[in-house]
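Hi team,

Filling in the usual template for the complex we talked about on Friday. All components are listed, including any nucleic acid strands or ligand strings, so the model treats them as one assembly.

SUBMITTER: L.P.
PURPOSE: interface mapping
COMPONENTS: two
RESIDUES: 801
SEQUENCES:
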Amino acid sequence: MVGYLLRRLLWLVPTLLGITVVVFVVMAAAPGGISAATLVEGQNLEPEAKQALTEYYNRLYGLDQPLTVQYLRWLNHISPLGWESDESGALTGWPTFKTPDLGVSFRYGRPVADLLAERVPVTVLLNLLSAPIIYLGAIAIGVAAAARRGSRFDHLSSLLLLVLWSAPPMLVGVLLIGFFASAEYWHWFPTGGLSTREALDAPFWPVTPSFGAWLLLFVLPLATTGLFVAAARRSKRAGLRHPVVAGLVGLAVGLLLVRVTVPILAPGFLFDRIWHLILPVVTLSYGGIAFLAKLTRASLLEHLAADFTRTARAKGVPEQVVLWRHVFRNSLLPLITVAASLLPSLIAGSVIVETLFSIDGMGRLAVEAVQTRDRELVLSLTLISGLLTLIGYLVADIAYAVADPRVRYEG
Amino acid sequence: MKGDVTHNTLLRRIAGMGGAVRFALVWLGLLATVAAWAPLLANSLPLWVERADGRWAFPLFAQFTAEDVAWWVGWWSAVVLLRWRRISAARRLVIGLGVVALTWGIASALLKPSPLVVYDAWRQAERAGEVRHALWAPIPYSPKDYLRDYGVTALEPPLAAIPERWHWLGTDDQGGDVASRMIHASRIALSIGFIATGVALVIGVTIGAAMGYFAGWIDLIGMRLVEIFEAVPTLFLLLTFVAFFERSLPLMMVIIGLTAWPGYARYTRAEFLRLRGIEFVQGAIASGLPMRSVLFRHMLPNAVAPLAVAAAFGVASAILAEATLSFLGLGLVDEPSWGQMLNQAVKSAAFNWWLALFPGGAILMTVLAYNLLGEALRDALDPRLERNGR
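RESULT (copied from the run log):
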């Protein structure tokens, strides 16, 4: 296992280099490509200033040199082991360990590393929130549909999942903004951004007149949720017995009670952020939920018909235990396989979501970077998203071995 | 019963699989029909005009482009070939493509539509009383006709009561008729889906076949290439391609195809690795057949099943890719596209629901149709799944 992982980690480097070569070649092969002239073009400058700027760009990025030299130069800059360059751009002495330098963005005139440090956490936050929601939602729906195969819930959810799976995120996002955020219809959510201006200076938690009221903020929703779940467990009628649904209803009732009874002076940073994140996260995660729930259902059905399931039932194992411990555990593998491709699709999804909801994240930065032909930025973004993708594959491999002891990576 | 099974073609088997698949086939057929007849369905130029002095004119047909003719002939040949069951599906496909290519070539040599069309010329003429009779298209607006002669017409909701004009699906931000733009945009969606997937299939199958057949170090290098292309986030690569190259339809098809091939290469490789050890392939090699015959005549037909399923899903994602690019403002310039219209729905201060619902709905239905088709193909080609499904 360790040997395999080490080998995979070593393969990361050439693969990442390959990715950047592909993107570099695409940019270089484009008509016009990237040269100091195209960067200076369009700016309203005196001829002398233009000349000076051209020379400046050439010196800074080596744009007047052959393409291979340009790429190797970029590679030298970003690698932790390489040559330092002096004022004139010439390489000096022996290769040494140095801090990797991602270069300076053409368009923003700022170090790419600074831009990434601002933007990448936003996208990672969106993806980290969406991934568990996708898995929990998909497993809940998929297991429920498979356990009651052929029921009305199964048919309805199958149809709905199929439609959701095919619905483009642009459409869903636009509809969500249009109906839930625009002033014309229900203005429940903000149309974009991650925070309101005031919330940035506000304290983290909501501000209430007294400590008692502040406690109520949390006690009330918890109490109603617990109450509803307990009531659902006690209920005799089959239709009312679902604890998850009851819990969600209880939570909603509790929040509504809070809204009515507790005087809130300021929503605070946390709730403002959550309020801003709801629509983007929904847009980012519904497609994954639909796809994974279909997969979960299919995988579960396969194992529900298996011999070991029949054995478990025959020896009198309770149905819930059969479902979760015997069938579900064995159905996990395809879900883990798909986890590897979840990360790339989430990164692609965040391009759309961030553009739509005006969130300043990596995806939006990527659109701006390619539109302004910002070479250093495009290369660094490719590197980062490629790295995230490959890490996703690696994590899936590890999870695979953890979930199924039969999986061996040796030899 | 035995005869039934052998004569059941794949298409008929799929069509018999249930309501969802039938919906998919009907929707795609409808879309293809609308795309083929688009210039006759929505056009600012009348089909036939009788001038005040009694002379006739056919303005719409005078403006027919080679593309229009090729779509139209393609539609007719599809109708004929689908009913003509005497020859194999592959041969029918080749004949259909040949006919379309031939008409395209001839038509582009013969037809000389003027590059500049004055969309309101005949409307103005009718108003001025220079036209005695005119036969208009059902939707008398071209996709790029921004109705300048009517003043400001932007963002009118569907079926708004406006004198002289009638827009079934409203107007867009430029003042163009949404219904007309949607009809013409179906051409882009359909052709991008097919040709981009075709490009991806050709690249993927060639590389995958080489990897699977030769194995060894070719396989090793090929798989690294596949891994690299799989690890590049597709949308990033597409964005880079589109932003750095000119925006044109053929280029966009090739680019989307170039980013989609690794999956097909993987499937082909896996199948070829399996097939190369089997006797009939060994026999073909031993009998001295040329490599191209072994690869594409003996091995490829046996590897078609997973490719066909992947291709159906691939068409859906190619259509989605084009819509996404257009939505991000990196699509074709000035050409009607569903994604571009969807983008306009929330651009202005108000929410223009008709610009979200209709183009977005069209993308949804088309993607859904291809996904359903892909699932049906998978069920039809995978007997193990079929048994479990029953």
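MY TAKE: DSSP finds 19 helices and three strands in chain B. The two ends of chain B are 19 Å apart (CA to CA).

Thanks, L.
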